[in-house]
Amino acid sequence: MAHVEIDGRRVLADLTALRRIGEYKTGVHRPALTAEHLQSIEWLVARLPEAKLTASIDGIGNVLGRSNCAGAKVLAGSHLESQRHAGWLDGPLGIVYALEAARVINTSAAFAGKAVEVASWCDEEGHFTSLMGSRSYVGQLDEDEIDRLADIADGRRLRDCLAAAGVAGRPRAQVEEGRHIGFIEAHIEQGDVLESSDLKIGIVTSIVAVWQYRIVIEGMQNHAGTTRMAVRKDAGLAAARLAVAIDETFPGIAGARSVWTTGRIALDPGAPSIIPGQAEMLFQFRDSDVVVLERMERHLEGLIGEANAKGPCRLKLEKLRKATPAEMSGDFQSALQIAAERHAPGRSLRMPSGAIHDAARLSTRMPAGMMFVPSIGGISHHWSENTSDEDIVLGARVFASWAAELLSRA
Amino acid sequence: MAHVEIDGRRVLADLTALRRIGEYKTGVHRPALTAEHLQSIEWLVARLPEAKLTASIDGIGNVLGRSNCAGAKVLAGSHLESQRHAGWLDGPLGIVYALEAARVINTSAAFAGKAVEVASWCDEEGHFTSLMGSRSYVGQLDEDEIDRLADIADGRRLRDCLAAAGVAGRPRAQVEEGRHIGFIEAHIEQGDVLESSDLKIGIVTSIVAVWQYRIVIEGMQNHAGTTRMAVRKDAGLAAARLAVAIDETFPGIAGARSVWTTGRIALDPGAPSIIPGQAEMLFQFRDSDVVVLERMERHLEGLIGEANAKGPCRLKLEKLRKATPAEMSGDFQSALQIAAERHAPGRSLRMPSGAIHDAARLSTRMPAGMMFVPSIGGISHHWSENTSDEDIVLGARVFASWAAELLSRA
Predict the structure, then answer these.
(1) Confidence of residue A2 (pLDDT cuts 50, 70, 90)
(2) ipTM score here?
(3) What phi, psi does A320 have (nearest 5°)?
(4) Does the distance separating the beta carbons of A265 and B228 come in below 8 Å?
(5) pLDDT tens for residues A69-92?
(6) pTM of the full predicted structure?
(7) Contact A259 B208 (CB under 8 A)
(8) B-chain residues within 8 Å CB-CB of A220?
(9) Looking at residue B287, what DSSP letter applies?
(10) In this structure, are residues B141 and B62 in contact, taking their beta carbons and an 8 Å threshold?
(11) Do residue B356 and residue A225 have CB atoms under 8 angstroms apart?
(12) Which domains, ranges and CATH numbers included, belong to chain A?
């Protein structure tokens, strides 16, 4: 493998520059296609020539840095927008690693004719819809859906935002068959597996699937003072009972790495003196094994059946999303293992990703791989999310070596 | 007792006229000091001369119909505003009964020199604050509180609404010592006690106290895919567990007629893929016995202590409201019993009120009594709330006889 030497200070300086765009406490607030997100895109566009890449922004807000070299190319990237009032590294870390790898490899004589190309996928976080930009790139997003989409938090229409960004009507970039040997992405782990074992690099084996449900519970809205306990149909209580039943019984049927979450419980009308007549729950679980996913779904259906049999409320299960786990390329995993062994010997771990990433979508059209660095305290989707400078720089070094290893093999 | 004959058709026509103001499905949407509420106030002001009463609207939006006679006077009334998208009888029934009793008694030679005076208390429902108008009348609402109050649903400032209604700066009517022999109020039961026993008139013995709590739960917001189950601090799950623990253990310590309600559970941020970092619960219980109320509070404190001891979240209990149960006058109850026996022999019941009413506040300054009519299905605080026409007319007849009985004794 040809040697590549990244500039750790430049990596940290780039991440710090991005942190200042939409800064919120020690994190950022940079939802997709807001002024702050567009500013971060402009920042990246201005950097790409340093890697001998020609930047363009496509019709969905993806940034692509293209090389004019004729040889093997690896595509690398992540996303620039953030969750609302969230962390500074979720997305930008993978962008800056890709940019740094491209800068050192695309300007290196040892890699003449080969290149790292950089992609920033728009709205991985799902302000409009999860993995929007990468879905567009792999051909899984149609114009009708774009017509319908609006920001789930503030209602901004996607079409209006694309027009305001000046990209409405532009073509949307698509996978070019044969152009890339594959896609690689780096990301903070967002969990505490690496940190709790004092490891530095996660080699992602697969990206779990999320199966997402909405449970609507119909009770009977009534006066909280005059309605006897015996005749109540309290939809809020039914929701609480289901959440507790899930908590008590899922450990017995889930896989060792399964996770499950009730992210929302909302009672209607939600007033102090009114018995809730309706409740809504958002519940999801994740695993990398379809057999386990199906077992969890059957168990959930069983719990809801039991609750309906017992009464007095009526529970209805809606299946919102059932994805397939995404396998990462075995060759890409072994290439990453080699790079990790060089810079952090004995301190890497093969692990599934519990979070969804753009690499899951890219993997449907080309070989893909993912690399994790440790998250302090496992915290993510919160402004206090962080990774030590030392781990950030080490990760950048491993990532560039990984890209180099892949290009050396091509 | 002198005979009084009410006009049942007029009572139904008046209630129907009020139902058309802010009509919503078969109910009404007439929050306090909205255009619809003001229109209903104007409607009442226009009717009061039919009862030989002079109407005025005071500085808090209370309507008072005053008689110029010199003899004994009973004050009767309820409220005109509704809960949001709620029932047509909750409040207006008591207003129209009072109006009808005043029309027939104040124009009857048999009651010359005596009168029923009519009051409409502003915002019993608590859009700004519960029992606002009756608290003002009994001297329990000060100007500082008025400065601070805003509609809890839409943020309208009370001062602005009073100005828009044209009553800002007007004096607020106050109890006049010795003017009234007492206050009487009719209301729909809002529960199913009368209906389930085929009874027609409820004779209220006391109005329960509501003890209202807010429970704030601190967990740790985190990513729903990457955070292992073992290290989570899920504030939503802690809220669900507390709600279920309350449901399972309160029956063992509560009184026979106690009720308890978790009206709101709100998770923050409430997103599908984020473990809730914070949760809020609004919980209340009601009873007419202070000993029982205190036992329930100690039990609630115990449950929260156990949850904190067990972890992993931190629960904090805030005591928002601890009222004293209001006893209704024994003499007023016996007068109502006589009136009920005349028109619905054997079909009345002495019972506490599980709902709070303006009579609770009036009872702190003068003898007070309350009468219930049946609610179909016990439904209330919902647009489908209803009472049969037959029961409405019977109730009006009993109410007028009750007022007549009280005035005959005076």
Answers:
(1) low
(2) 0.83
(3) -90, -35
(4) no
(5) 999 999 999 999 999 999 999 999
(6) 0.83
(7) no
(8) 379
(9) E
(10) no
(11) yes
(12) 8-208+325-409 (3.40.630.10), 209-322 (3.30.70.360)
